[in-house]
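INFO batch 0412 | record 1 of 1 | parsing
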Amino acid sequence: MGETGVWTRSTKSTAWRLLVTCWVVYAIHASTDVVREHYPAIALADRFSFRLDEYGGLHPDLFEKPGYGWHIGNNPGISMFAAVPYFLARPGVDAVVGRVQAGRQARGDTIPPTFDSPRTRSAGFYAEAYRRGLDVKLGLASLITQVFFMAPGSALGVVLVFLALRALLASDRQALWLALLYAFGTPVFFRTGFLNHNLMLGHIAFAGFLAVWNPSAHAVPSRVKRSVLAGVAGGAALLFDYSGVVFLLGLFGYLVLKQWREASAPEAIRHGAWYVLGTLPPVLLLWLYQWRAFGNPFLPGQHWMPPVEYSDRGYQGYSLPQLELLASLAFDHRYGLFATAPLLLLAFAAPLFRKSAAWRENAWALAVCLVLFAALWVFFGGSNYTRLQWNTGVRYLTPILPFLFLPAALVLSRLPRGWLLTFAIASVTLNWCMAMNREVFRPLGVLDPVLRVLTGGFQLPVLTTLSRMEQFRPWIGDAVSPLPVFALAAVVLWVIWRKSNQPG
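INFO prediction complete | emitting tokens
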């Protein structure tokens, strides 16, 4: 049984090993998906600019505003962070791209090779990127940002969940196993495969939540510092996406009410002010970006987007919550949160254990997790773009994963071992298959990847992509077995854990 207020040597060792384990597993499941957030990251690393004129027409979410050039409509936070590893790797990327382009020119290669993708848009995108000489650059950018930003970022999020579970359950052993279930038995596994602002937003907001909750009192003993850090996290959530306003306001409310209950009204006001101060750097950065990109610091980028499907409903596609959208967000078989992570339904059974010490001592924190879920669910219940999730899998509610997992873990920790193993095996199987096979989820929805893996064997997205490219088939054929990669990863993980002290 661990002491929740003390990080023992064994706890720190376990946390580090958990971090590296998740990083390795996430990295080998990287995909080659190039998303809209990649373009600002590359432009920022290449020339310290967010203008995307040279990428115009490559992605449907890139648009031009006269006088300001091409940009994307969503917030720039994830691109700013992802630009760092790409900037560091840029000399190597430029050298590889230069050598490939020189070889193509020498051979007179002008016709794009066949890319046998089941997605028509993907094949068209590859052909156009090849013609522009951007295919290798974009492919390397997707791998670099996943392996050196998304993978370690999500791994750090898993460690934060581990520390929160340790405080909730007062057991390092339970916290470790449940943190691994969070890492590989929820859509965190699937969403970490490519640059994704929704997931990173959730982990950053969760860090702010921990700063307010303060389950390990010795980590940041200063209440002022914790209030400022929570504010930075809330502001950063908004910098990543406007749905971050749910966490920006939610963390503020949690902080003020907690200080009011535990100290006094003046303390609540004082710490609320420190929180607001912490939000200013990321919020001001967002306003600066919007001013430079669109000429107005306060209107969102979506305001300037040309009309697209569903944008005629409400304000640029956002309207009052609709029951149809709320139901789809939760249970649609292609992207519903509880279709991809059924075990999270257990979170709503957590109040049944209100007589337990874990609930009594952490009731406010667990209640806040449920309230934040409700708020985010209602927020996206008004987004008509929810209907487009069918081709991306679970997306909009991804930020709530670490929050909803906490109360679910309280229930999981009290289930009979047989039921717990059943939930764990089913959840890991589903989400691992989604991480291995990332095709459009239809007609069976989230069960499609499971069926493809069961009938086609283990897969890795990068190997699948290479096997579909005409120029690589003479060397690798129509399919590449991922088993050697899995075996190498297994050896690495065995080395990491072989001398591990058993957590208490």
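INFO post-check: The first helix runs from residue 9 to 28.
INFO record closed
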